[in-house]
């Protein structure tokens, strides 16, 4: 399977990036579920990074309105100290998405670098890296992450992202390596090599641009994986974060026994729904991407 | 053709004639066998995981020994030396020895099946703690996955045969939706909605691995009770992986339907049912078998939270307790045993794959990645 770049209309008078984006949206609009996913992602990015600018952070609760059911004043009800749940949902996406994006970035960088150089260097280094990737793919990742986080207590974004991405690179690394192994036999790579352009140039200028679609798909998948693992670690209380965060809401709901208050339903359900809808948007979007980037399967 | 002594030596090396050399070559022949290679890979995975976690624990700032010493000296009742001695005895390692030496003795103990002793329940070997909880997790995860695999493969095949009909769209969208929900959130939703809001299931009675009053034994009462308590974890593991099998089986079937051998089978006038089971289904299901072990690893990871929400006494709940109590030997032991369980599941999937796919195994070499 070859990595297909986004097809562009040759008669376009627009600059290439804009024309490419328009073409991408046109292809996406043919896939209702992909479009829903895309809209969902845009919505959650706006909710997490733009909305908190306009919505003031509510620190102080009102003890007279503990565990309220949804009303006009509190659209999603209130929590155990009378704080508005909707306010927490608006404030609580930023941390999760930031960590997920950093994790995905680090994971993808490690995977692409190791995968392409492993394929180019070959020999024992290659065999060792592939072996390590195989091992990481076999090991029950979340259990290892739980044990490592329990010991390391990652207390800031970067530490958590590093812990999360230390295990997640193996799948993409294997795929990048397999792709580079086929791509490096192509004529243009041979040409670059005979011009003595060096491995770094060959990887980053000649080979990787042909694998954009792969890398984008895996980047989005890495985001979903990072959200899955991150929420689990926070809900278990292994990440000493404070502040507003969907996963922290679930952690506090559990420690304060909010599950058992019938009226606290929306306090517990809202962060669950937010996480599920975010994951669903990402999955629908990535399914559509696979469909678009792989013309063999493309039906329209 | 003239032969020099050097040539003769080379020939002698290639075709050993002494009985001992022949036996060595025989063993080397087994080494090339895919089963042997899978075994070696499995052992290597367990070894590397254990090694990495061993060094991580000991090289990490704020390691368990220091934390224990801090705890013991905090109230001022114990001097640093005393606390250090107690921490060392708890961890069953000599703190003065260099880490590589500690590693060697740890590995030697491990080879004898000795995982050390729990911090909290003093004197209890980690091995017996882990073995008491492992069967419950393996039972629920295994049953849930086998059920979801069978149902998912059937539904996926069904969707592929009804491609672009409403039922296909329903199954595909449903599969995407359900596979995007983190497995532990499914558990939380079951507790929250079915258990506490609608009160359809008696969530508090279903806690634990079995009811405390019931005598353990191989009788209907006990088995029924075990199933009653395991029902919700099994349901969650079933739902959490179902979407993956539906989608995977559907796309594999769609690809298989375009293969030449399917056309050939049709041309030979074979019945549709036979083509579906013996030709399309069998080939489409093959790649899914290898994913079974990955799904198992994923499910066991989620089990930590799933068992927490259902208060089901499996590996996950015990691991959480060990974390809260900072019982590091138990944590390490559970990690090791779970790794072994997943690696063995992987190994079985590999072997099953080579049994199911006649192209692999008989030729003597596994196909590439």
Q: How would you describe what is shown here?
A:
- The complex is a heterodimer of chains A (300) and B (369).
- Helices cover 69% and strands 0% of the residues of chain A.
- Chain A has 13 helices and no strands.
- The longest helix of chain A has 29 residues, at 93-121.
- Chain B is mostly helical.
- Helix content of chain B is 75%, strand content 0%.
- Chain B is built from 14 helices and no strands.
- Chain B has helices at residues 5-14, 19-32, 34-59, 64-74, 80-91, 99-111, 126-161, 166-180, 183-197, 220-257, 260-267, 272-310, 315-324, 328-356.
- At the A-B interface, α5, α6, α11 and α13 of A face α3, α8, α9, α12 and α13 of B.
SS-based class of chain B: mainly alpha
How many angstroms separate the termini of chain B? 43 Å
Helix content of chain B: over 70%
Global shape of chain A: globular
- Which sheet architecture does the biggest sheet of chain A show? none
Computed structural class of chain A: mainly alpha
Order of helices and strands of chain A: HHHHHHHHHHHHH
Shape of chain B: globular
Describe the largest sheet of chain B: none
- Fraction of residues in H or I helices of chain A: 55-70%
Rg calc of chain A: 23 Å
Number of strands of chain B: 0
Uncertain parts of chain B: 8-13, 361-369
User: Assembly state here?
Assistant: heterodimer
């Amino acid at each position: 399977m070859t990595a297909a770049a986004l097809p562009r209309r040759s008669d376009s008078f627009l600059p290439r990036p804009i024309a490419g984006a328009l073409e991408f949206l046109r292809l996406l609009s043919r896939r209702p579920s992909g479009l829903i996913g895309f809209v969902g992602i845009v919505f959650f990015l706006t909710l997490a990074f733009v909305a908190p600018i306009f919505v003031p952070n509510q620190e102080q609760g009102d003890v007279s309105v503990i565990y309220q059911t949804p009303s006009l004043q509190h659209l999603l009800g209130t929590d155990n100290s009378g704080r508005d749940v909707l306010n927490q949902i608006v404030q609580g996406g930023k941390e999760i998405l930031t960590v997920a994006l950093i994790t995905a970035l680090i994971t993808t960088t490690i995977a692409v670098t190791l995968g392409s150089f492993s394929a180019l260097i070959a020999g024992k280094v290659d065999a060792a890296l592939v072996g390590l990737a195989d091992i990481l793919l076999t090991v029950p990742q979340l259990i290892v992450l739980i044990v490592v986080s329990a010991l390391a207590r990652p207390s800031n974004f970067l530490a958590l992202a590093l812990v999360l991405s230390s295990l997640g690179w193996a799948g993409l690394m294997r795929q990048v390596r397999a792709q580079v192994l086929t791509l490096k036999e192509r004529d243009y790579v041979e040409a670059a090599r005979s011009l003595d352009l060096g491995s770094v140039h060959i990887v980053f200028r000649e080979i990787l641009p042909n694998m954009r679609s792969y890398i984008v798909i895996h980047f989005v998948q890495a985001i979903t994986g990072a959200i899955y693992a991150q929420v689990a670690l926070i809900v278990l209380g292994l990440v000493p974060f404070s502040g507003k965060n969907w996963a922290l809401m679930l952690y506090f709901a559990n420690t304060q026994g909010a599950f058992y208050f019938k009226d606290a339903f929306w306090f517990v359900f809202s962060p669950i729904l937010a996480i599920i809808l975010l994951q669903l948007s990402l999955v629908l979007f990535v399914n559509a991407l696979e469909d678009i980037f792989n013309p063999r399967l493309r039906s329209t | 053709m003239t032969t020099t002594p050097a040539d003769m030596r080379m020939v002698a090396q290639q075709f050993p004639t002494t009985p001992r050399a022949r036996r060595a070559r025989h063993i080397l022949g087994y080494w090339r066998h895919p089963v042997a290679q899978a075994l070696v890979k499995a052992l290597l995975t367990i070894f590397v995981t254990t090694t990495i976690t061993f060094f991580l624990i000991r090289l990490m700032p704020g390691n368990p020994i220091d934390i224990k010493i801090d705890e013991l000296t905090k109230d001022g009742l114990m001097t640093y030396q005393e606390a250090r001695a107690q921490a060392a005895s708890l961890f069953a390692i000599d703190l003065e020895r260099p880490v590589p030496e500690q590693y060697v003795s740890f590995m030697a103990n491990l080879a004898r099946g000795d995982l050390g002793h729990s911090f909290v329940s003093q004197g209890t070997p980690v091995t017996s703690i882990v073995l008491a909880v492992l069967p419950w997790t393996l039972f629920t995860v295994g049953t849930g996955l086998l059920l979801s695999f069978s149902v998912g493969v059937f539904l996926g095949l069904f969707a592929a045969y009804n491609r672009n009909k409403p039922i296909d769209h329903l199954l595909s969208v449903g599969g995407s939706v359900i596979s995007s929900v983190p497995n532990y959130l499914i558990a939380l939703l079951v507790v929250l909605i079915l258990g506490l809001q609608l009160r359809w299931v008696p969530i508090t009675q279903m806690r634990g691995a079995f009811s405390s009053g019931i005598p353990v034994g191989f009788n209907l009462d006990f088995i029924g009770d075990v199933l009653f308590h395991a029902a919700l974890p099994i349901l969650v593991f079933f739902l959490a992986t179902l979407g993956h099998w539906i989608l995977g089986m559907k796309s594999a079937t769609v690809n298989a339907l375009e293969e030449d051998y399917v056309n050939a089978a049709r041309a030979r006038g074979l019945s549709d049912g036979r083509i579906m089971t013996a030709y399309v289904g069998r080939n489409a299901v093959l790649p899914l078998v290898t994913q079974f072990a990955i799904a198992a690893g994923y499910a066991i990871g989620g089990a930590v939270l799933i068992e927490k929400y259902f208060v089901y006494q499996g590996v996950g709940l015990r691991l959480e307790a060990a974390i809260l109590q900072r019982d590091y030997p138990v944590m390490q032991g559970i990690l090791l045993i779970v790794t072994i369980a997943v690696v063995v599941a992987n190994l079985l999937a590999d072997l099953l794959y080579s049994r199911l796919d006649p192209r692999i195994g008989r030729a003597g070499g596994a196909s590439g990645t």
